[in-house]
TrEMBL record:
GO molecular function, one term: glutaminase activity
Alphabetically ordered keywords of this record: Amino-acid biosynthesis, Arginine biosynthesis, ATP-binding, Glutamine amidotransferase, Ligase, Nucleotide-binding, Pyrimidine biosynthesis
Family: Belongs to the CarA family.
Name under which the protein is recorded: Carbamoyl phosphate synthase small chain
Keyword Ligase: yes
Organism: Anoxybacillus suryakundensis
ATP-binding among keywords: yes
Complex and partners: Composed of two chains; the small (or glutamine) chain promotes the hydrolysis of glutamine to ammonia, which is used by the large (or ammonia) chain to synthesize carbamoyl phosphate. Tetramer of heterodimers (alpha,beta)4.
Residues that coordinate or bind L-glutamine: S45, G219, G221, L247, Q250, N288, G290, Y291
Amino acid sequence: MKRQLILEDGTRFVGEAFGSERQTIGEVVFNTGMTGYQEILTDPSYCGQIVTMTYPLIGNYGINRDDFESIEPHVFGFIVKEACASPSNWRSELTIDEYLRIKNIPGLAGVDTRKLTRIIRQYGTLKGMICDMDVSVSEAVAYLKEAELARDQVKRVSTKSPYASPGRGHRVVLIDFGMKHGILRELNKRHCDVIVLPYNATAEDVLQLHPDGVMLSNGPGDPKDVPEAIDMIQNILGHVPLFGICLGHQLFALACGANTEKMKFGHRGSNHPVKHIETGKVAITSQNHGYTVTEQSLVHTRLEVTHIALNDGTIEGLRHKDVPAFTVQYHPEASPGPEDANHLFDDFIAMIEQFKKERGVVHA
C-alpha cells in the first residue's frame, strides 16, 4: 500500500507502507549506522522523532529477543530505502514489518533516503507527517506548521517508580531520563548495586539512598525542559561522584551555569570520531543527540572541556574542576556501535573509589 511522508517545507516522498497504518507526526532525523536498527528503534532518546536510516537495507537480520534497549520502542515513525521481508540470522524471531505492526509504529519503505538526508543536512531537522495518499500536501503543511511537538518526552519514557538491580559492589543511583539498557548492563557487569530513580527525583531522594556514585542517563528532547533535574544535580554536586551521558551531560552543564543550544541536524550514528584533548587519542563513538553545550557559555563556570567532536568541533566531554564529576555527550555503552569508550565506566568506578579513599571509607 502506498503512503507518503510530507515535510513542513512541502517536500513529499511516496513509498510503500509497512508496520502500523496509523498517521504520525514528529521531528524527522537521520541515523548513519549500517547496523543496530533494533537498538535504534528501542532507544528512548528517539521519543517524538521519525527516524530515517541512511543505510539502504534495513531488517536483513531481523528482530531478536536480546538487542532491545528498552522494553517498549519510542520512535514515532521509521523510514528506510528497503525493508527486508526475509531476514537471515539464527537469532531472528520477527521481521521488522512484524515488529512495527505489533508496536503500532508506522514505517515507510522505498523512499529516496539519500535525498531526504541531504534536505535535513541543508535545512536542519524538519517536522514531518507519515500519512495516507488522500492527504494533500497543502493540508499536511498547514497542519505541521501549526503543530507543537511534544516537550514532555523525558516524562513519557522515564520509569514511573524506583527499582533496584542488585549487586555486591558500589551503590550507584541511576537517574532515568530515558535510559538505554546498555548503561544498566555495564554497571551490572561491574557488580554495582544499582537503584534506578525517575527523572524528577530530588536531591533528597538521591542522597537518602547513600549512593557511592550517581549516573545521569541519556534521554530525549531539550534539556531545558527538565528543570527539576537541573535543581537536583546542583544539590548533589560535591556530595557524591557523578557521571553523565548524553542528556545527562547537557543537564550537568546547565546545572553548572553553562548553556545548551539546538544543533542544525544533530549527531546520530555509530561512527563519530571524538578526540580526548588531554591524550590526543581518538575514539569512534555511538551518538544520538540534537542539542549541544555552547562553548562560549563555559567561560564563567568551573567546567573544562575534555573531549571534542572531530567532525564539527562541538563539545563531547566535560569535567568539573573542583568536585568529582565528568560527563560525555556520546554513548560509551554503545549498543549499537563501537566500544572504544567503554573504559569510561571503569573511570567512574575508579573515581568512586578515590572519593571513598579520601574520606577514609572502607572499600565496598
